[in-house]
Amino acid sequence: MTGTVEAYGAEPPGAPGCPAPHRERHPPIMFVRRSAAVLAATAVIGTAFAPAALADESPSAAPSQAVPSGLYGTTDPTYDGVWRQSLALLAQDTVDVRPAAKAVDWLVGQQCASGAFAAYRPDPAAECGAKTQVDTNSTAAALQALEALDAKDSVTGAAVKWLKSVQNEDGGWGYLPGTPSDTNSTAVVIGALEAADVDPQDVPSKDDRTPYDALRGLSVPCAEDGGGAFAYQPDKKGRLAANADATAAGVLGALGEGMAAEPEEGADGDTSKGSRCVAGDSLSIKDAAANGAGYLADAVAKDGHLKSALAGAKDQPDYGNTADAVVALATSGRTVEAGKSLAWLEKNSADWAAQSGPAAYAQLIFAAHAAGTDPRAFGGADLVKQLGATGPAASEAGTDAKSGSTDGNADNTDNTDKSDKDDTDGGVSAWWIVGVGLVGGIGIGFLISGRKKKQQ
Fold first, then answer.
1. Which of 81, 154, 403, 420 could bridge 77 with an S-S bond, Cβ 3.0-4.6 Å?
2. Of 75, 66, 67, whose CA–CA distance to 26 is shortest?
3. For residue 360, is it left (φ>0), alpha (ψ between -120 and 50) or beta?
4. Does the record bear Cell inner membrane in its keywords (predicted)?
C-alpha cells in the first residue's frame, strides 16, 4: 500500500527539473485536480497524452491572449477555463459568498447549444461545431456549480440531457464522448447528476447498467495489490491498478457526492474497521466506497499526505490529491485521518495554492468544508478571501448574483481577444494536435487533473 500517485513519461513544463523559463512564464498547474483534455486523440493514435505539457509550447499559452474579464485566474484558460471557474463558483457558494454576476454569466455563456461544455471557448458567440472539443468533466463541473447557483432549468437541464446522451454501455463516462469509462469522469458526472436531483440509479445505459455499476467494475479486488482502491481505467490487459487520485474521486462518486461534499452526519471518527477490504462478487457500492476510503486512510497514515511521483518529484507531496483525499475521508466518516491530512495542508499548502490559482483554493475550501473547519481561518489564512482575489469581486450582500440569464451561445464578446479565434477550435489549438504526434511515441501517459499519472 502506498500513497504515491505515480506517473511516467516526459515531464510537463512547470514540473521539477524543467527549464526555468517555463516555470516562470506558466506557473505549474499539474497538482490542481482538473481533468484536462487528455484523451482527445486517443481514438486516432491510441495514445493518451498530457495537454498541459503541450500548452506551454503552443502560441495560445502566450500572454497575447486576453483573459476574459469574468474569469477566475490569470493563466491561459485554454485547457481549464470552465473547470477552474466552476470550482471557484462552487467553492464560493459553499461558504455563502455570492459570486459576481459576470463570473456566473461567463460560465453560462460557455455552454454549447447541445448542453455540453468544452474546456474553454474563446468566442462564446460562435456556434459550437464539430471541432469544438466538448467533454464530460467540464460539463459536469459546470453543472455542479450552476445547480448550486440556481441557474435556469434550460441551462442545467440541457447539460443533464447531454451527459445522459454520452453515457457508455458499462454505465460510466470517459473524458470525451465515446472514450472508455474512467473513475474520475464517472464520479464527477455522478456528482453533477445528484446536484441536479437526478438519481444515478435511474440513469441506466443501453445495457441497463448504472454509473454505480461502472464504479464497482473499477474497484480493485481485495486479493490484488492495492485492493480496495479504485483504478483510473483497466490497462490493456484488463487489469486494475490502484490509483490514489481515482480513489479519492471514486469514493465520492460511490457515495453519490459532488465536489462540495458535506461531512457525514454523526461521524465520530471511528476507524476500528481499519483498512479491512470487503470482498465478494456481490460487492455493493457502499462497500466499494468504504474499501476506497480504507485505502486512502492507509495511504495518508504515515505522513498525513499523499505523494507525487512525477518525474523529478520523487517523494514530494501531492497537495491537490491530498485535498481530494480529505474530502473523501471526511465524507466517509473517517474524520481522524481527514483531520490529520487537513492539518498537514494547513501548514504546507500556502505556496502551492498561491502558485496554482483558483482551483487550488477551491480544493482547499472543499477540504476544510468537508472536515468541518473554517476555511476563513485555514492555517492563519483566509482561503475565501484568497480565492476571491483571483476573480471579479463578489456581489454586495443582498445582490442576487445567481444567474443563468444567458443562453448556451451567449454573446459575451467582451470576454476575449478574438484574434486567436482561428487558432483555437473550442479551446483545442492546431499546435495541440501537432503535439500529440510529437509525444505519441514517448509514452507520456495520462495527465488527469493536470497531473501525469501511472496506475500503481
1. 81
2. 75
3. alpha
4. no
pLDDT band, very low/low/confident/very high, at 444 (cuts 50, 70, 90): very low
In the predicted structure, residue 450 carries a pLDDT above the cut 60: no
Query: What distance in Å separates the CA atoms of residue 365 and residue 352, rounded to the nearest whole number?
Result: 14
What b/e sequence results for 206-239 when a residue is b if at least 16 CB atoms lie within 10 Å of its CB, and e otherwise?
eeebbbbbbbbbbbbebeeebbbbbbbbbeeeee
Instruction: Give tens-digit pLDDT for 234-281.
Output: 999 999 999 999 999 999 999 999 999 987 665 555 544 456 898 877
For residue 206, the model assigns a pLDDT of 86
CA–CA gap between residue 47 and residue 78 (Å, rounded): 21
Residues in the chain: 456
- Residue 6 has what pLDDT? 35
Rounded-to-integer distance, Cα 314 and Cα 11, Å: 12
- Report CA 286 to chain centroid distance, whole Å: 22
The enclosing H or E element of 390 equals: none
- For residue 214, give the C-alpha cell: 461502472
Q: Where are the domains of the chain?
A: 66-429
